[in-house]
Amino acid sequence: MPYLGSEDTVRELRRALSNPNIQSDQLRYRNTILKVIRAMSQGVDVSGLFSEMVKACATVDIVQKKLVYVFLCSYATLNPELSLLVINTLRKDCQDPNPMVRSLALRNMTNLRLPSLVEYVEQPLTAGLRDRAACVRRVAVLGWAKLHNLQPSSEIDAAVVNELYSLLRDPDPVVMVNCLRALEEILKEEGGVAINKPITHHLLNRLKECDVWGQCEVLRILQRYRPQSEDELFDILSLLDASLVSPHPQVMAATLSLFLSLCPSLPAVSLAALERVRGPLLAACGSVSREMRYTALCHIQLLLRSLPGLMGAHYKRFFCGYAEPAYIKQRKMQVLVELVNDENVAMLLDELKGYCTDVNTDTAQSAISAIGRIGRSYSDRCLEILTGLLALKQEHITSAVVQTMRDLVWVCPQCSDTVCLALEGCEETLQDSQGRQALLWLLGVYGERVSSAPYTLEVFIDGVRSEASLGVKMELLTTTTRLFLCRPAETQDMLGRLLHYCIEEETDMCVHDQALLYYRLLHCGIEETRKVLQGRRSDPSLGVLIGRPAEPISQWACSFNTLQPLRQGAIETESASRGSPQHVTFDPKPNTDLSDTLNCSQVERVHSGPDSASQCTDSSADVAAPLSLSLSPALSPEEFERLWLRQQALHAEQGADKVEQEEDYVSLEEQVQSSAVPHCSPQSLQAAMQLVNIQTLAFTPPHTLPWRVYLYTHTQRAQSGNTPHSTLILGELLCTGEAKKGVCDGEVVVEDREEEQVKEGEEATADGLSGEETARKAGEAERVKVTLKQQPRDDKALKGFLSILTTVLHTLSSDTS
Amino acid sequence: MEKRSGLLLPPPPVQSLSRMISQVFILSSKGDHLIYKDFRGEAGSDVVSIFYEKVTALTGDQPPVVMSHKDLHFVHVRQGGLYWVATTTADSSPFTIIEFLNSLSVCLSVCLSVCLCVCVSLCVLRLTALVKDYCGCLSEKSVQMNFALIYELLDEVVDYGYIQTMSSDVLKNFIQTEAVSSRPFSLFDLSNVGLFGAETQQSKVAPSSAATRPIQSSREQGGKSEIFVDVIERMTVVIGSNGVLMKADVEGEIRVKCYMPSCSEMRIGLNEEFSIGKSQLRGYGAAVRVDECSFHQAVRLDEFDSHRILRLCPSQGEQTVMQYQLSDDLPSAPPFRLFPTVERDSGGRLLMYLKLRCDLPPKSAAINVCATIPVPKGSVSLSQELSSPDQSAELKLQSRAVDWQIPRFPGGTQLSALFKLEVPGLSSASMLEVGPVALSFELPKLTVTGLQIRFLRLSPVQPGPSQRWVRYVTHSDSYTIRI
């Protein structure tokens, strides 16, 4: 055994190698050398045999030569002096009539990696470039790259570079590709091999001759080329079209990379290319090799970011096979969540449900959280499955379900009733800290609806001394204090005990300080505590799973066909659960008197864009919505135009005043900072607007200036006695492309102060519609001018509407940017 | 399309475009270093142990295909119980590297078999069958025994981290020059032929490699010139609890293994009624249809449209001539149906009565059928009643499942099994944990798409005795039946 007594092995081998009897017997000699190599690859240090091996190099037996070279190349750097002895043999071999021997000698000469030998190597390498045999030229070309990297500081020999460029026309395709590779390395400082029009066309014409590996290399290097005209570009693209659907995934990927880098300014072409690779990518997903499946899945996820509908019809291809490893199953589930739509949701959930009881706990938990994410769009079906899973009373399943429910409720507050019912009795099964934290959070926020909440908490508080998890303790403090606010009678005693323990006995400073904070807060009075602790319960803007706007391809094009997408696993799953509410527990809620101001005004400083826009229409939202929008009765474009122009005429007569005040009609202008909105697609804009019941009537295509959208809606204000019940709002969004362009449509726009952003409801008073604006940052980005006309007048409704609109625009721009 | 001025973009910033393989190494599953080859001298050999530490420390949910250590990236595949690892310092194409490692292992197994065949046919003809059997299965042992050959091969395949070629033509070239001189070296290997033979006999049990392994009988009369055409299909099926076929995918390929010294052209005739895509229908018989189909670039298709004939010049070794897929539309009924009854008995035991029907044509049979039935957590013991003695069933506690093994299952028959499971604290909700049942099996001499090879013609007509083999097999990739 070579592992034991490696010194003995080496000694024995040396004795055998220097034994003249063995040396004279070809077969025995070679077998001894074989033993040396075997020992070497098993990790034994056989460098001591170097001089014996150098002697063995001088032989006519080509197999023995190869074996010795394997040895010499591994240990040459340790014995530079002795290596000099080999050079003579190698140089002699370079003259050998057999091209096999010549290429072997040349390759190993350059593989010795000894800077001291460079002077001996250059001459045979130069000769090698002109050798008759292609296999020698292949080696010689790469040899120059090796030589250059041995002495990176040395001058680049212009003659060699020229020779290499001329060898691009070599009849052997591998020599050609090797030339590209060598030049790429030698000219690294200058940015690699020069890719001009003649070279590009030459490479493209010879692409067919190369094997798949060479094709990949050429396609990759061509990424640097920029076609001179559109015709040339399309010629290249049509030439490459066949490689796009190549059965070899590596060629397909390299071609797509090239497509994406050639036409960044032609999104339609890029999207068409993505459609073309669907077939080959799906085939790679079903490959025998698991690793290939995984790679293809990761890249499909990239494609889906820009083309969410790409795989919709093929969702079944992403069902997990039972014998697949967990990492593939998890990726497949991530893809499945993206593919959900009205037609396939039932099938998909049925499939995912099957994975929830998988024997692998990681797979089971990711299946559960995948169902939770689908629940943002199809909450009823998903909650049914999730509550069903709780009945299994298995630790890891219950924990995952409770965490998923917490995340779901944060996004879809309408699910809270079902969740509260399901929570009863979970605490017995929950063991891990993550699951218990989720349960505590839910109890704290929805404590008034879970009848057994105080009893559950009591169990936790009784066991707090033996509690190991810091997170659970912190969450327990918050939850108990919150519950005290809504159910004081049942909770007072246990809150006292908990605070006492945490302040007096707890050793962890975080818990201690938080307990002290609550204690002092309670001293300030119930109302103050309520203000601090009863933060937001939900963030519905995170919820849109379907109709999410597509990302531009350029966002990910540079990471396509690299290792990047394969390494992103952990990061992506984290962002998947970004709806997690843990971090916002202490968010102060700015509006205290909800009945007076519109709830739309609660745009907080901490949460830039997204807000409760959809809450306004969502009747089941627990915050009462005083303002609701509706699309009926529908307004025809002609009617819209008539109304709009009539009011504009009126407006012009009255002179240029910012706010038009009249008996039954009001006009208002606002500027909203939203840089990306003019660039988003009409579909996503329309979808987003319809989500909050605003109808868009007409719009200019994206990226054109000035960019306009016309829209309308009807407002209904329920709890207002004296205001009219229904009003009609017409609106125009206008973006001129310049930051502060004043005049348009003959109307004078308020030259706003340096900053203006989102309106804060408290500051804008009802009668002065001047729109006192405050904002965080100076408006340098493009702004969208909003002109609104309302009939009949209802300031509060108008203000509310503006707030909703602002929110939608912000959501859109934060998604597209 | 309108002209855009934005087309003339400035050249993109120069990225470090060096995307090559720095090292290649092969490790056994126990972490023994089998092969280590450094191409660029950028990292030391200590990374091998770092890799092994990393790969064994994985908890299971991390995607292990790519791992990083400092600025070195390990890309690895698992084949034949070995780790095939390539390291690369730059952001290389994962498709290329994974495909490279996969083809490397295929290349090696072919190379080993060809090489050994050539030498063995020269000296020990009798052993050909055994050695031939050795083809296609790549194990720690075979890598260890042929490490010199593998080093040579790696030397030819990759130079300075750049893939030079992996085509079988070069492989052939390589073997021609090496065959004679490597004979003694093979004899050295053959000196422990008893061990060798024993090894292969054992490895015969591995069912999945059956398709890649030549048939052994009647091979005595000279194994020099042979050609194998394999039609291999893999099926993925999901059957709903109501018995409705929810998903059925078939991925198939035609693979040619050629060990024929002088074969200039080969013509493979497929079914006349073979059609691609939805619209086309050919002939009058039952159509053999696939959705998508792609061919090796060496295949000439000039007779394909009219007569469904593929023409190619096979090179020595193995190549995939054609790949095809079929989704959601099987020409026949799925091969297996399950009729389960799952209930709790009065004593708190779980009763599972399973009837499994094989809907294959009566002349065919499935072999090595294994049904895996997930059972509730906490199952303690299993008692079973099976319909014939050659079947067996076992409760695997680790995977929480009952494995029901059926060595041979003829078409048109039905088998039944009654499993009684002792599950302490069985609740009605635990029933949710039973299922879905996964089946793995092999259907020899059968393709589910119905693809057949009508004829196989070689030109020029082979002088000596030559053998042409056409083999069909269907594997289950994943066959799931919900309960």
Question: How would you characterize the overall build of this protein?
Answer:
The complex is a heterodimer of chains A (817) and B (483). Chain A is mainly alpha-helical and 817 residues long. Chain A is 55% helix and 6% strand. In chain A, strands 1, 2, 3, 4, 5, 6 and 7 form a 7-stranded antiparallel beta sheet that branches. Chain A is extended and about 105 Å long. Chain A starts with 5 loop residues before the first helix and ends with a helix. Mean pLDDT of chain A is 78; it is low at 570-625, 655-663, 719-724 and 739-781. Chain B has a 9-stranded mixed beta sheet with strand order 13-15-9-8-25-23-18-21-20. The relative contact order of chain B is 0.11. At the A-B interface, α3, α5, α9, α11 and α13 of A face β2, β4, α2, α5 and β7 of B.
What attributes characterize this protein structure?
heterodimer; A: 817 residues; 55% helix; B: alpha+beta; nine-stranded mixed beta sheet; 25 strands; 38% strand; globular
The secondary structure category of chain A is mainly alpha
Structural class assignment of chain B: alpha+beta
Helical amount among residues of chain B, as a percent range? 10-25%
Strand content of chain A: 5-15%
Total strands of chain A:
7
Mean pLDDT of chain B: 75
Structural Rg of chain A: 36 Å
Shape of chain A: extended
